[in-house]
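This section describes the prediction task in plain terms. A model, or a person checking by hand, is given the sequence of a single protein chain and must write out its three-dimensional structure as a string of tokens. No templates, partner chains or ligands are provided. The sample shown here is typical of the held-out split.
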Amino acid sequence: MTSLVSLSILGNGWPFLQLAIATILGMILGVERLLASRAAGPRTYGLISLGSCLATIISLNIAPMYLAGESANVAAHAFSLNPLMIVANILVGIGFIGAGMIVLHGSQVSGLTTAAGIWVAAIIGITVGFGFYALAVFTTFLTLFLFSVLWHWEQNWKKNTTNNPTEQQ
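The expected answer:
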């Protein structure tokens, strides 16, 4: 039986580098959220990217085992498990975390951006897990742009809109 440790892709150390990259990219997003005084910071974002990357690496490596029928020495057709569904289920789990971040205070909703950021951090981890490093880094910087630059623009727009109610119509 083939184990994950003996697979050639794990023998070269790349998965360890992938995990580190995913963690760092997630933490970068989390630092911005920390600076914005949000509940989810670098540890949360780093853990989400790390876990998503690890699940992606595992799904990439167990799929050939199941397709070759090497798991428990049983033919592949005997399994109804699709190992690639691990990636899809990451997003289901992140949905629960994101839903917990959204809070309603009277008519005000908060936590939507943090929930969306957590979702993106998970996908960044998945992207690193699949080896698309440039896409992951680019997405991290786009997310930082949305978190910081557009936040300032939104605040100015909201301030100008509330100061000039006649211009809203």
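For orientation: The CA atoms of residues 46 and 137 lie 14 Å apart.
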